[in-house]
Design brief:
elongated; about 15% strand; ATP-binding; transmembrane helix
Length: about 290
Amino acid sequence: MTLLFKIGFLEVGWVDFIDVFLVSILLYQIYKLIRGSIAVNIFLGILALYLIYLIVQAAQMELLATILGQFMGVGVLAMIILFQPEIRKFLLVIGRGTEFRENIFKTITNWRSQYHDDFDIQQIMEAAKTLKATRTGALVVFSRDTELKFYAETGDALNAEVNKRLLLSIFNKNSPLHDGAVIIHKGRIKAARCVLPVSENDHLPATFGLRHRSALGMSENTDTLVMAISEETGRLILARNGKFLKALKLKQVEQKILEYLHNDEPANWEELHVGETEAESPTSNS
Ligand SMILES: Nc1ncnc2c1ncn2[C@@H]1O[C@H](COP(=O)(O)OP(=O)(O)OP(=O)(O)O)[C@@H](O)[C@H]1O
């Protein structure tokens, strides 16, 4: 091994350096995935248990060490079960590494501009404006990379071009399709009446019911952007990576959707303050 430097008896080589660097990236990615979610508490619980186990072992308390050892024995399996959503998201992030190569190819073939032309965002924005004004509840999932077949199959397949009138018809309270979420992929409404996973986040405002929880849950579990419009208040929220974006003007919502679709997002997602209302928000009037 090529020696890089030496601290006392410790010899540090290039391989060690790369090893520590990769572990740091891995830990940072794990931290980013579980930050703000209930998984942090579970992770800290497991860590505390592991530390106690080490102390008990060092103190040679055999009975306790054996009991805790049994827990540690099934630790990996327990972690996989407990952190299933986080592991899924992590693998999705890694999987998107292959997308990098695809993107280079697609950029060369001018795929991005084609995609943009296909997708008339104004149809969405006009529908959102009307839905807000008429206080019609709506849940829209934007998926950049996949058709989300698993979730689309919980509803009714449509595969129709995005269109303002169609969206308004779907979410109309008398429509048989209005319950649940619409999934949009590559400029097409893939399905309506879809059931989304519900978030277990404990820190949501009491006013947030199932529509908001499922918007958040979907963004926690998948690499999607979710737009929810409240039936009660007409408030529009965006959910991404397990976080809500503060009340936005419609122009800003449009910008966020386009940033997401073009994979060009800044990292300025913030959680909505508990109890915040549109009237209190400085950026409101969406
Ligand atoms: N898991 C889910 N997946 C998709 N849609 C859901 C899910 N749970 C609830 N919804 C939708 O949300 C609607 C009811 O939501 P609820 O009133 O509990 O939500 P809310 O967050 O308080 O929203 P609102 O402010 O519009 O009342 C349902 O009629 C359904 O259309």
